[in-house]
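ligand=zinc ion
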Amino acid sequence: MGFVRIIKNLLSLNIPTEHSLKEGMVPLEDAKCPYCNSNFEKPLSRKKTCPVCQHDIFVRTLPFKNDKERIRVAVTEQQAENIDIAWAKVNGTYDDMQKGIQKYESKKKSLNKLWGIEPSGSDIEWHLLLDELIEHAKNNQWGLYRNTILRMAEHLYKLKEFDQSLRKYLNVLYLDVNGPSNATWFNGKPNLNERAFNPLEPIAFIAPGIIKRIVLLKDKRVCIDNEELKILFLEESSQVYAALKTPITPEKALQTLVEKDVF
Ligand SMILES: [Zn+2]
């Protein structure tokens, strides 16, 4: 997504009216390219590159509150961004969206200054995740911290950094065994003395999706056996254990996971 363009849109745009949004947009059932008007055999079901003009065509639903019928449209990238902004305003997520974009732009600037070259979108996202991680740790928010580690694992997976991704997933698994939670806030400040890890007996909740991804990485991407996976788990959790003083030792966590047939 073009973030600079979104910012320009945010600054210039009020909530688009039904008329202004619809103008120049192609209803999905027309099965036409919004750029070059070429006809397709059937309506698009999702994003597609036009075989004639090679532009990316986006599929969206128009955000009108009085929607007796939901209007689906095939639109240009710019139109899709306008619709996303309009949706954010309707859903009340517009402020968050705006803050997210501001953070992204300021991170881009600071990395650019630091490195002397323009950072990639992926680099910017990674550094925003790192910032988030520090913020959650500082605020004693270990549930949120665990969620950020999970997003890092997903980020690395998308980059095909499978070894690093697997390590982050194991990190999530170890945190889950320890039952991470978020300290309560009072007067706008987190309670830093609150114990924010609370392992449940005999095992804290382990998300099946995490296990599935670890097995996929182990068998198909990194290609290691169970014993190597256990060593990796101990390596990763030892670092977390040392840094965060988590209540369950890596060995005990591994034992629990083996007993529960996770490994
Ligand atoms: Zn086209």
